[in-house]
Amino acid sequence: MNLSIKSPHAVAVQRERGSAATAPAVTAAFDRAFKWSKEVHALNGNNSDVKLTGKIDPKTLPGTAGKMFADVTKNKNYDTLNAYQLSLAGQKVFAIMGSNGKPPSDTGLALFAHTGKQLAFKDVMGLNQWQFDAKGNARNMALGAGLPGAPRVVPPKPLTPAAKALTAAFDKKYPFNEDNDTWPIPDSAQFKGTVPHNTDMSHMADSSRYDYSTVYKLNIGGKSVFAVNGVADAINDIALFTSSGKRIAFNGGDWTP
Length: 257
What we know:
This protein is of the alpha+beta class. The chain has 2 domains: about 20-145, no CATH class; about 160-255, no CATH class. It contains 5 helices and 10 strands. The chain has helices at about 10-20, 25-35, 65-75, 160-175, 200-205, and strands at about 55, 80-90, 90-100, 105-110, 120-125, 210-220, 225-230, 235-240, 245-250, 255. The strands form 2 sheets. A 5-stranded antiparallel beta sheet has the order 1-2-3-4-5. The longest helix has 13 residues, at about 65-75.
């Protein structure tokens, strides 16, 4: 007969693990604590009641919560983004809430366990339902990226030193104008010739992603390169190419290979 005696520490750890509240229990506690969470909020309505207490420094967010806050901040998904610490269902819970407009007309809300693992997501002015996986519209939401089934984001490879130098020279010569969302490339630089067929450059120039594309021939840092600027609704991309049509770098917000 084998008897095992657990140390007080082991018993305490077991109790702590066993007492963790489920995600539905945490969201139910949230709904009780913040009455607005169960109410319908119109996109163009007075949504000034949508607010949280317990704001914290986002740098203290652990795990997935901290990485998500950094990514959403970098990508500018929301005009306003804040982190919070709450006590729900007897647990320490972190929350990230992002919104656009004042009062907010678009609000995303994510809840996380004390470890930083994501528990749930809610599109407050949209479905207004707690989602615990990425089967719903959470799949396409920046604040739903930590749920099971969410697309795995693979970080882009860094630019080569030569490409990095070239894009830096391009940015210096043609600094992006935030006011009119354009690069100040003169019309006189438009390329009037034939784009090399079946190349990276021709694929972008002919892409159905854009309503229209403009091809330029430029001298950047003493080097002759081509640039393609593709534009559509809420899209303004530019890429640099060699004379043979091979892509050097692409910018859809940041320069990547």
